[in-house]
Design brief:
With about 425 residues, this protein is of the alpha/beta class. The chain has two domains: about 150 residues, Aspartate Aminotransferase, domain 1 (Alpha-Beta Complex), CATH 3.90.1150; about 230 residues, Type I PLP-dependent aspartate aminotransferase-like (Major domain) (Aspartate Aminotransferase, domain 2, 3-Layer(aba) Sandwich), CATH 3.40.640.10. Helix content is about 40%, strand content about 15%. The chain contains 15 helices and 14 strands. The protein has a seven-stranded mixed sheet with strand order 4-10-9-8-7-5-6. It has a four-stranded mixed sheet with strand order 1-2-3-12. It has a three-stranded antiparallel sheet with strand order 11-14-13. β2 and β3 form a beta hairpin. α3 runs antiparallel to α12 and α13 runs parallel beside α15. The longest helix is centred in the C-terminal third of the chain and has 20 residues.
């Protein structure tokens, strides 16, 4: 078949719905200030799809820092990759602050979390090394695995018996290749909100030697006494060899970082292709990230407010009989049984008749027959927002049970 014949949206799992869903279910446009109340499809909605966990996006000091950063340096400076002409004292300073915060010797800034993770995996292992990873790892991890020309073994999600089996396989093979083992997991799993079994993973170090890489995109800023992440939450931060996090969630910005021992970070500075061959993170974003980190560390009240909203929302939904899976984080999934069409009907009802905007997750992200509505509470939400949402979900739940949403066709808007 000609390649161009394959390059059609209808040949993809989600793209086949483009004719009825584009601009509504997929690629929706939210307008207005980034906060819990925005404009969608011409009317005001209560938005539960914000990457703004602790409410920094519109914090006055953050807005002021962003404005000053853009005014003083523009978006072009520094020009070039850091290894060539894109290095600044500000970049170094932010890295030192990040390393100190997550209790690591050093850190390295990344332009984006997704490309950063892909490049980290590529740089850390070679053909002789074996990767062992959780089956529910994020897409950026999966794409990093595709670059690995050595062996990789997957263990059932958070299943320590399964992990032990795969580590045995990896150990046996590594003895033949004279390679090492890289174990990869998320700290907070971004779809279902459950936490990695870090205690169980670390316990296996009694029998197996491996390097531990944790993707803590959703844990950084939200988990732990000081918001330093899932490792801090379990008091196991020292056991994480490579700690990765992004600015896109709690920091409400752009960029990411990897933290580890100083010699490891030095190696990565000279090895990460996504940074060596890409323009440096613009100064305005670095300057803004410093202010975000400062507030993340100093204003615990913001994280306390986040968890007040999280606990109220999750308790209210559970008390109403909804299945939230095993979430232990702000990520709030609501699971239903049904097909994609039923799911879109539920979503449309919430958006059109209750003015509630949340995201829907369907196959292939979740198994067939499962619908997941994903809510992301933030410190910017209010208890009134929570109360209204729980009331709406109760009504939608009753409709779902009585078959009101039963259909085989995705409803067009």
């Amino acid at each position: 078949m000609d390649i161009l014949e394959k390059l059609k949206a209808e040949n993809t799992p989600l793209g086949k719905y483009q004719n009825v869903g584009h601009g509504y279910y997929t690629f929706p446009i939210l307008e207005g200030e980034l906060n819990p109340h925005m404009i969608f499809n011409g009317k005001k909605v209560l938005n539960w799809s914000l990457n703004n966990y602790i409410g920094l996006a519109n914090h006055p000091e953050v807005r002021k820092a962003d404005e000053k950063g853009a005014k003083d340096w523009g978006m072009a400076y520094p020009m070039g990759a850091r290894i060539m002409t894109g290095q600044t004292k500000e970049h170094y300073e932010l890295e030192n602050l990040l390393a100190e915060f997550v209790k690591k010797e050093d850190a390295y800034l990344l332009n984006y979390g997704y490309q950063g993770m892909v490049s980290i995996i590529d740089a850390v292992v070679d053909r002789n090394d074996i990767i062992v990873y959780d089956s529910e790892s994020h897409a950026c991890i999966m794409d990093g695995l595709r670059l690995h020309i050595g062996k990789r073994f997957v263990f059932k999600h958070n299943d320590m018996d399964s992990l032990k089996v795969q580590l045995k396989r990896a150990k046996k093979l590594s003895e033949k290749t004279n390679g090492g083992i890289l174990l990869i997991t998320e700290g907070v799993f971004g779809m279902a909100g459950d936490l990695a079994n870090l205690k169980g993973i670390i316990e296996l170090r009694k029998d197996f030697k491996f390097l531990l890489l944790v993707d803590d995109a959703h844990g950084f800023g939200t988990m732990g006494k000081n918001g330093a992440g899932t490792g801090e939450f379990f008091d196991l931060q020292d056991e994480i060899d490579l700690y990765f996090a992004t600015f896109a969630k709690s920091m409400a910005g752009i960029g990411a970082f990897i933290a580890a021992k100083k010699d490891v970070i030095t190696y990565l500075r000279y090895s990460l292709r996504s940074q060596i061959f890409a323009k440096s993170l613009p100064m305005a974003m670095v300057f803004g990230a410093k202010k975000r980190l400062e507030l993340l560390k100093s204003e615990n009240i913001l994280r306390e407010k986040l968890w007040e909203i999280v606990n109220a929302l999750q308790k209210g939904l559970k008390d109403a009989g909804f299945n939230l899976g095993n979430t232990q984080s702000p990520v709030t999934p609501v699971f239903f049984s049904g097909n994609v069409a039923q799911g879109t009907n539920v979503l449309m009802d919430l958006r059109e008749n209750y003015n509630i905007f949340c995201s829907i997750v369907v196959y292939p992200v979740v198994p067939k027959g499962v619908i997941m509505l994903r809510l992301i509470p933030t410190a910017a939400h209010t208890l009134e927002d929570v109360e209204y949402t729980i009331k709406a979900f109760k009504e939608v739940g009753k409709k779902l049970k009585t078959g009101k949403y039963d259909t085989e066709e995705v409803m067009a808007k």
